[in-house]
Request: fold
Amino acid sequence: MRTSDEIYHRVLWDPRFEPERFVMGIAERGAVPKRVALVDFVPGGEIPWHRVVFFEADGRVVWDRRSGVDRLGEAVDGLVGPDPAPGDVLAVPPTHRTAVAWVPPDRLWPPIQHLRRAHDRQIRRWPPHVNVLFGFVPEAEFERALPLVAAALAETPPFTARLSGVHWFGHREDATVWLDPAAAGHEPWARLRESLELRFPLCGGSSHGYTPHLSLGRGPDPHPLVREAEALLAPMTARVTELVLLARRGDEPMRVRARVHLGTGDVRHAAEPAPPGNPPPPRTV
Reply:
C-alpha cells in the first residue's frame, strides 16, 4: 500500500489525473475526519502525513489507510488511465552521483563561470547546469534508463529559455544564489520534470515546488553576490534542445555520459574521456 504523501504527489503531477476532483480526509481528534480539497492541502504545513486517512475522487474512495484500500491506478469510471506497464518505469533508488540536466551552450559560460570561480565550491565538480532530475538512477542503470528518458523528452518540443533574474535559497547557516532559467515561463521545465518523474518514480521527490535554477554560488550572506550577479549578468536566451545524463565516477567531476534530444528522443552517447590522472581544472572560455 502506498503512503499518503505518495498518493498526494502522484495525483498532483500525473497528467492523467485532475487534482480538482480529489478530496482528502484529515483525522480530527474525537471527530469525523475533516474533508479538504486536495488542491488546498499544503504539504509540510500544520497537518502531518499520518493524519491523512483517505482520498476520494468524485466521491469514491480510492485510498483508505484503515481498510488498506489502494486503487488509485484503477480505471474508476474513466477517472484515470491504467498504471504504466512495468517496462515503462524504472523504480530504482537514486544516487546523488548522477543527474538529468540542461547544460547551457558555451557562449553563455564566461560571465557565469566568472562568478562561480569566486563563489561556488562545486565548480570543479559540476559544469554550469540546470538540474531537471537529481538524484537520478546509478550509472550502471543508464542502459535501461535511456529509452525511458528518450520517451519522456520526446513529449516536450525544444523551447527557448530566458536566463534573467537573480534569486537565493536560504539554508540553515548560509544561502545559495542562483540565476533563473525559467524567466520566459516555468511550464516547459515542469513538463520535462513531470514526464521524467512518471518513469522514475523513486527519483526527484516531487515536481510540486520544483524550481529550475542555475547555481552561481553559496555563502553566509547572499546579498553581495546577488548585487554582483545582477550587475554582471545581462538577460540571456538559449534554445533548450537536449538534456544530458551526468554521472560522477570516483573523485572525478560530473561528466556528460549521454545526450537526449527534446521533441524526438534521439540519444547520442558521449565519447569516453581519457583516464585522468587528476580531475581537470574548471573549464574556462
Remarks:
- Residues 4-83 form one domain.
- Residues 274-285 have pLDDT under 50 and may be disordered.
- The radius of gyration is 21 Å.
